[in-house]
Amino acid sequence: MKQLFVIAFGLLTLTSCGDLPKEKTDKQPTATTSQADTTLPSDLTYKIVNETINDSISKINLDIELGRKVNEQELTNLAYKLRGTRTKYDRVWISYTLPKMKVGSGAWATSHFTPNLEIKILGSTVKEESNSNNAAASFDGKQIGKWYEQQATSATYLYYEKDNKFFMKTIFKDGTSMETTINQKKVGNGIKLTDPEDTHGEYYIIAKNGDLEFYNKDNKKFATAQVTK
Question: What is the pTM of this model?
C-alpha cells in the first residue's frame, strides 16, 4: 500500500493548471474559430463549474465537468468551442473533471491555449479503464468488492478473501498491478482496511453506501472509489 499512496499523494499535490505529468500531448497550431471543428456529438454534455478571468495577464481558467469520458478528437473540438467565445484572451486554460471528481484535486484532462492548443489526457481512457477492470478478474479467491478510483490513481481495486486471509489487488491503467494483505475491522462508518506492513498510517474504509474511501494518516479522506462490475 505504501507504493500506492506515494503515487496518489504525488498526483493530488499537483494542480490542474498545466503542472500535472504529461501522458498524452498533442501540440497544434493556433486555429481561428472558423477554421476549427467545434462539432460535438449529441451525447457529449458538459457544464462550466468555474471561470476565472485575469485581465492583467490576458488569461482565463475554466473548470469543466464532462458528462462522460471523451476521446482526443472530441476534447479538441470542445476546446475550440470554448475558446471561440474567449478569443480576446491570449491564454485560455481548461481543466476537465468527470462526475464525482473533485475540482482542484487533479484533472482528468486539460486543453490549454498558450496560445497554441496543447491537449493532455491525464486520467484513464475508456479502453484503459475497461482493461484494468477486466484484468481484475484474474485472481484466486472469493471476491468481496471491486471499485474504480478515477481521480488520484486511475485504478481498479479488488478486495478478496482466500484461506481466511484478505487481500487488496490494485490494477493501474498501464496494466501494472500490486497486491497487499489486509486486516479488516468494523468501525462506526463502515469497515476499515489496513495493510499490516504499511508504516505511513494510510487506510481504506468500505463505507456503508458501498464506496471505497481512501484516508491518510491524519484521517483525512483524499479519494473515493465507486463500485464497478
Answer: 0.79
Distance from C-alpha of 178 to C-alpha of 84, rounded to nearest angstrom: 44
Q: Delineate the domains of the chain, giving CATH numbers in brackets.
A: 22-121 (no CATH), 126-227 (2.40.128)
- CB-based contact 90:59 (threshold 8 Å): yes
Non-local (6+) Cβ contacts of 127 within 8 A are none
Q: What region, left, alpha or beta, does residue 171 occupy, with left being phi > 0 and alpha being psi -120 to 50 degrees?
A: beta
> Is it the case that residue 10 has pLDDT exceeding 50?
no
Residue bearing the bigger pLDDT, 30 or 77: 77
| Residue 38 binned pLDDT confidence (cut-offs 50, 70, 90) | confident
**pLDDT recorded at residue 1:** 57
Amino acid at 89: Y
Coil/strand/helix, residue 5: helix
